[in-house]
Amino acid sequence: MFTLLSGLVEWAASKEEVRLLVLGLDGAGKTTLLHAAQAPARRATGSGDGGPPKTRPTVGLNVGKLEAGGVAVMLWDLGGGAGLRVIWDR
Questions:
Q1: pLDDT value at residue 71
Q2: Domain limits at 28?
Q3: Residue 48: predicted pLDDT
Q4: What is the pLDDT of residues 20-71, one digit of tens each?
Q5: Element (H, E) at 61
Q6: Would 9 be classed as within a structural domain?
Q7: Which residue from 20, 60, 66, 72 has the least number of CB within 10 angstroms?
Q8: Residue 90: exposed, middle, or buried by beta-carbon count in 10 A (0-12, 13-18, 19+)?
Q9: Phi and psi, residue 62, nearest 5°
C-alpha cells in the first residue's frame, strides 16, 4: 500500500522535463540564446542586472535549466568551434 501511495505522490509532484540541444557553428549565438532564455529567472531572483549577457566562446558545453509553462527545460549548449565539431555526431 505504501508503494502505491508513494508512487502516486511522486507522479503528482513530478514535472515533465524536456531536453534541448542547441547546436550550431561558432559565433551563431547559442550561448546568447541560453543566457537570454534564463534572463527572466535571473531577474526574478535578483542575480542579473537586466543588461545584455556578456559571453565568451564556449569551450565544451554549457548547461542551463529553466521552467516554461510548467515544464522543466534543460538546454545543452555545445560549442561550435572547429575542434568541437568532430564530437557533434556522438
A1: 86
A2: 16-87
A3: 57
A4: 888 888 888 888 888 888 877 665 555 555 555 677 887 888 898 988 777 8
A5: strand 61-68
A6: no
A7: 60
A8: exposed
A9: -115, 135
pTM given for the model:
0.63
Residue 19 cell numbers, joined = 531536453
- Is the residue at 54 inside a domain? yes
Apex 80 CA angle, 86 and 72, nearest 5: 105
The answer to whether residue 2 sits within a structural domain is: no
Query: What is the CATH number for 65?
Result: 3.40.50.300
Domain total for the chain?
1
* The C-alpha cell that represents 35 in the structure block: 543566457
Q: Which residues pair with 63 in a beta bridge?
A: 76
- Beta-carbon count within 10 A of 67 CB: 11
Three-state DSSP class for residue 65: strand
pLDDT, residue 53, reads: 62
C-alpha cell at 56: 565568451
Q: Side chain identity at 75, as an amino acid letter?
A: L
If you search the block for the grid coordinates 527545460, which residue do you land on? 73
